[in-house]
Amino acid sequence: MKASQTGTFMVTASAWGMSLTQNSELPQFVFQANLLAIWDEEKKEWSDYSDFEESQMAYLCLYGKKGQVLKNAEQVMKVFGWDGQSFAALASGDYSELQFQVRIEDNDPEYADNNPFQVAWIDVADATPGRSLAVLDAAGLADLDRKFAAKLKKTSGPASPKPASPKPASPKDKVATTSHTSSGTTPEEKSRRNREQKAKDDAAKETKALAKKGMPTLPKKTEGMTQEQAWAIVCNTQKEIGDGCTDEMVQEALFAAVTEVSGEDAPDVEQFTPEQWAAVVELTKKTLIGV
What we know:
CATH class of the largest domain: Mainly Beta
Number of domains: 3
Low-confidence stretches: 174-183, 213-222
Order of helices and strands: EEEEHHEEHHHHHHH
Distance between the termini: 33 Å
Mean pLDDT: 80
Shape: elongated
Number of helices: 9
Largest sheet: 6 strands, antiparallel
């Protein structure tokens, strides 16, 4: 009988092999998972599930359209001991005695009529059950910095120059300041207004320049955002897409979007406007959705 609910299960495989995805004809590892136990999130323990005699077919695409290794392939190597060298070797292995975890989730609505659920993730038997945020440790972060050193150098802006020490105000300056204050507009207020107007003028010029270059511009109603907000949205998009969207894909898509929005090979992201960060998010999401 097919699986009747979502959750994290301890399973064994009763059948397995290789096939091709329906539309793109990409290699995928398929197996039938027999559900033995289910993880109880409240009690934090495994509960026997074997009496239900349920099973779920898994279809794990191993490579993307551009030939990139997907997260599924890494998990298949981890769980089934595959060395990644031969599909024939993977298909002909004996996994009948192997226990491991699968996470079953709701299927894509397009396929839900025939298969309401799908295996979204697999892991070894002693892995931490349930959903958890996978983040890099210190060693992984250091390796990531080394891997993307060149791109980080291009996207980083120049160090801000140290502001010059203000000159002592002369008696004449003090008189002028007093005069402006009495009229309701201080030099500081006037300077702030000038900066705001300059920022608006620069943004308008930049939009015109981007339009001439054929660069993407934002719809008038699009709201801006900070760099931190943009990154948070990109991370959430990666999580929504699922395990096939790797950190490397996100980095490449994000860098391409930053470059395209700025129109420069070495953009100064510190100078990006909120509207530009919103444009970066839109371009990055469009790229990742196609992964």
